[in-house]
Amino acid sequence: MTNGQKRVGVYIRVSTSQKQTTLNQRMELEDVCRRNDWEIVEVYDETISGTKSIDDRKELKRLLRDASSKYFDMVVVFSVCRIARSMTHLVSVMTHLDELGCDIYSHQQGIRTDTSMGRMFFQLCGVMAEVENSIRKDRQTIGIKRAKSQGVVFGRKRVVDEDMELKIVELRHKGKSVRAIAKNVGISVGRTHKVIKEWEPILAS
After folding, report:
1. What's the pTM?
2. Which long-range contacts (CB under 8 A, 24 or more apart) does 80-83 make?
3. How far apart, in Å, are the Cα atoms of 98 and each of 26, 57, 103?
4. Which of 4, 16, 175, 200 is most buried, judged by most C-beta within 10 A?
5. Percent of the chain with pLDDT over 70
6. By the 8 A CB rule, do 138 and 109 touch?
């Protein structure tokens, strides 16, 4: 590596529902790095839904660990949606990297967070995440009222009360795994799964 050459970690992802591989993303981003004289120190390659939580995405977790160790200066992605489909998850990852002093380059959007335009994009993502959360909570509240008006009873109240159920729904909306939710709420995985099953019409709305 020459003096001043930027070290980058390349993150590539396709969804499990997509009939394609990460090869095209990898070839495109390797070409981008060559043109910009960026040294690729690691490639993080995974096939998983972008709606999954960070805890469920092994390669993204590995990238964040390496970023904490200052293994690279910037993360290169094909598009910001490769990092996360949820604006809330995206902002969480971007904020974490920003706190570590690690920049992000999104090829499709042509955005680098070490530029003024990139910083503006980062701030806009934060605003959109707040809007996304607000919309989700509104939908959740409306769904609960509709279900209750139809006589739906959620869970066995002797084990899981209404506040716990709402907490389970909120965490599930954030993409948390059933096991992580059960640990957070303090009930069994089986009971958590049953509550989520009962709330499926609301979670899908």
Report:
1. 0.61
2. 80/104, 80/106, 80/108, 80/109, 80/111, 80/125, 81/50, 82/11, 82/12, 82/13, 82/25, 82/50, 83/11, 83/13, 83/50
3. 24, 20, 6
4. 175
5. 74
6. no
> What distances in angstroms separate CA 51 from CA 32, 47, 54, 86, 151, one per listed residue?
27, 12, 9, 6, 31
Residue 9 gets which letter from DSSP?
E
User: Which residues are known catalytic residues?
Assistant: 15
Question: Within 85-188, where are the H helices?
Answer: 87-99, 116-149, 162-173, 178-185
Give pLDDT tens digits for 4-17: 689 999 999 998 75
> What would the two tokens of residue 104 be?
């992000």
Smallest Cα–Cα separation from 26: which of 59, 51, 58? 59
Contact present, 192 and 182 (Cβ < 8 Å): yes
Is residue 93 within 8 A of residue 126, CB to CB? The reply is: no
From the list 147, 140, 130, the residue with the least C-alpha distance to 169 is 140
